[in-house]
Design a protein that fits this description.
The protein is an alpha+beta fold. It is 19% helix and 34% strand.
Length: 197
């Protein structure tokens, strides 16, 4: 049985429009948005997963939904010839987290610059300090963390961040005496080495 949630790519800044197209066809879509900051005095919002949305379907029972006339979609996310499926449980957890974020006022009120955060992106697990400017609407948070013996400024999707109350929870920071290139400069980098919906 292949019933579950599948990931679709959307045109740039068209997640809501693409979701609307699918909903009008009677399809179940998950494409949450959250408060990202202030712009010209107003609260701005952005997609939790920029460029992607989740679609629930059962290709064995109903076939694949027809997307040829969807103006704001670019296609399915695939690995080779396979369309990876997410379970109902996995997406339910994402939905619950999205609701929790929204109840807290979006990421605008969840974190502050300098907060200690933990994250898990694929197989990589880390702890670091949030350095993102809260006025930014960028979909990724900037986190300074230890990576392979160096301090790097990584870009982490907001949805993977969790608050850490114990500031001394990252033992790698205690033993790290060199910030990398000298003169206290950070090595700039990114941990977004693969595509995350």
């Amino acid at each position: 049985m292949r019933r579950g949630w599948y990931v679709l790519r959307t045109r740039a800044r068209s997640e809501s429009l693409a979701a609307g197209e699918l909903k009008r066809q009677g399809l179940q879509v998950f494409s949450p948005r959250f408060k990202t900051g202030y712009r010209k005095g107003n609260i701005s919002e952005g997609p939790l997963f920029p460029g992607y949305l989740f679609l629930q379907c059962d290709p064995d029972k109903n076939g694949w939904p027809m997307l040829e006339h969807a103006r704001y979609l670019l296609g399915w996310v695939t690995f080779g010839d396979e369309r990876p499926r997410l379970s109902d449980i996995a997406v339910t957890e994402l939905i619950q987290k999205a609701k929790s974020i929204e109840l807290q006022g979006g990421y605008l009120n969840c974190f502050s610059i300098g907060d200690k955060v933990s994250f898990k992106v694929g197989e990589f697990v880390g702890v670091g300090d949030l350095t993102t400017n809260q006025d930014s609407s960028h979909p990724y948070a900037r986190v300074t963390c230890s990576f392979m013996g160096r301090f790097v400024e990584a870009q982490i999707p907001w949805v993977f961040l969790e608050s850490v109350s114990n500031a001394d929870s990252d033992p790698s920071r205690k033993s790290q005496s060199r910030r990398t290139r000298g003169n206290g400069r950070l090595v700039k980098g990114t941990l977004v080495g693969k595509t995350y919906p």
